[in-house]
Amino acid sequence: MDGVNKVEQMCGSEATAMERAVDRLAVAAELLERAVEKMTEREGSFAVEAEASIGRIVATVEGRREVELEQRLAAAETELTQLRAKAATAR
Prior knowledge:
Helices cover 98% and strands 0% of the residues.
């Protein structure tokens, strides 16, 4: 009987060790799931921040381009006025 009891004890201790390992794996899996959730949330906030930054950059570039075009238009209008004045005096 002693041999049978020892075998049962060994099997029982292996089962206990296995249960502990499974419990630790379950805890690790839960921690990984939480980490993935946090990373997903951060990814979303990074995307929002990036979109806002891109919007500001585009607005700045468009603003500069608009100023440049206004300056070129003013220069063209001045040149046109000068050309008309020269044409009027040449007649």
